[in-house]
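Forwarding these from the shared drive since the link keeps breaking.
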Amino acid sequence: MQFTNRIAIVTGGAQGIGLGYVERLLEEGAAVAIADIADDKGRAAVEALSTKGKVIFVRTDVSDEASVKAMADTVASELGGIDFLVNNAALFGGMRLEGMLDMDLAYYNRFMNINMNGALLCIRACLPYLMQRPGAAVVNQTSTAAWMNYGIYSVAKLALNGLTTSLARELGPRGIRINGIAPGPTKTDALATTVDDQTLNMILASMPLSRVGTPADLASGLVFLLSDQASWISGHILNVDGGQFMRP
């Protein structure tokens, strides 16, 4: 219960890895806001988790500045502040697997607005509240895809890594840490609809810890990065990937 009296926002927290993050944060004593565009899933998640702690749903489109600002203001008003921001929302499940030279520009812009720019908008909206809370921290959900150099998802996640390290310099003097988590292949519906079994098996065969990860694996990394145990860590991308990518 190390996060008792702490307040966290998890974007894209209505399903998949994000929902796993919400569950673990509640177990650690935090009050949690699920910020998601999926109304039905968000409200269902709140109903399912209401016995585990204080949890609310705020409908949020992370690509829309007004929506994100309303989200931050609502969370601060209803829960009493913001200590932690987890930028997990992304367009991944069912994404178009197209080359960047052929991709429709409107889709490219929408993809980047969700997968990269959305994190910046959320940080900017939450900043006034985070600055009021000692030990405030941000975690961006990146991916091992950032180092695969394959298509728009890799580009967006590599850009998010750059955003994370650059903002570490800006947020540090304001008393806020920011880090990233780079998951490897993780068991979610989004993975099942995007990566076929043959490709997944090939990836797993190349990994030292040759299994699909779980949201629980990632949640342990998240808790560490948000906690006081990581009080002198900022601008770091933590791979939680079974050894898929080793960066000396």
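-- next protein --
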Amino acid sequence: MNVRGPLLFIATVAVAGMAVAACGAAQPETVTTDTVVPVKTEAAQIGTIRAHIYATGIVTAAPGADLLLVAPAPARISELPKSEGDRVRRGDVVARFDIPTAVADVGRQRAEVGRAHARLQNARVAQTRAHELFDRGIAARKEVEDADRELADAQADLTGAEAMAAAAQAVAARSVVRATFDGIVVKRLHNPGDLVEATAADAILRVIDPARLEVTASVPLADIRRVKTGAAARFAGDPSQPRLKVVSLPAAVDPSTTSVPVRLSLAAPAGLPVGTPVQVEIDAEEHAGVVLVPRPALVREGEQTAVFVVVNEKAQRRAVRIGVSDNIRVEVTSGLEAGELVIVDGHAGLPDGAAVTTQAPTAGTST
């Protein structure tokens, strides 16, 4: 019997089976390529960078440049000479009111002043008479003291009546309202003949000075300590608009809020109406003598940040820690040295250790 043939067949099948089994087992994937990837690089540099805080804001009128007209007392509007969009000059009449209670109060207080004058006159006559009778030994000292007291009370009564009359006259004078600055009527909420209450909820019209506008920005609570009065700012993404400057920070902060209002002045009129929502960029802390790389050099994978450094014509992935950044550059606080070449273009999907050929970035890639 020829035994070698079957044994050789069995051995061949066994080897084939082992090969199949080996093929079915999970093997680590190894990516190898001889392709040289063209990339653009730039050297990490030592420099100075300014951090920025980004916030949403709204265009508002500056203090003293916003007049919300409210009736001085419950009244009827007798005249509203200005309409929405009309310009007004300082001193122009913007409203007249009929205030019946004010007119009646002025008459009543004037009558009180007259009564007080009469009382004072009578008190003076009585005092003179009491002193004459006392000098002649006819009147008692108590009568003189009573006359002096009455004169003093009458004088105080007149002073109080005159003050009340002046106050009533002031209220009546407020029936005519004049503009306190040059501006524009941006809202008119009533018409002549309307009955109005003396509350802001029942305002008549609103006048603003478009030359004195500012931005009120909502800065995140976590960043408010980084904002300083006088710091420069700008409209984010719109270099055509005028520069901004921080002019006021709140004196107190509610820790339960998520944002804090910050006032920014405009270096020139922005041409934006009140109420326009805007995005602002406020200068914060400055870091000098730090390692800087262009923003496109960063590679983010989950919570980790890395760059690709070219070493011996190979792309070497380097985990880094970053600090502050602006629109162009990023501070690297660890993982990279000044002078090392980082890839700024061509690193998308690039494996660690890939062969690369480098070229300088085109104009505009970084500064």
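Helices lie at 4-24, 100-135, 141-173. The domain at 72-99+175-208 is CATH 2.40.50.100 (OB fold (Dihydrolipoamide Acetyltransferase, E2P)).

- D.
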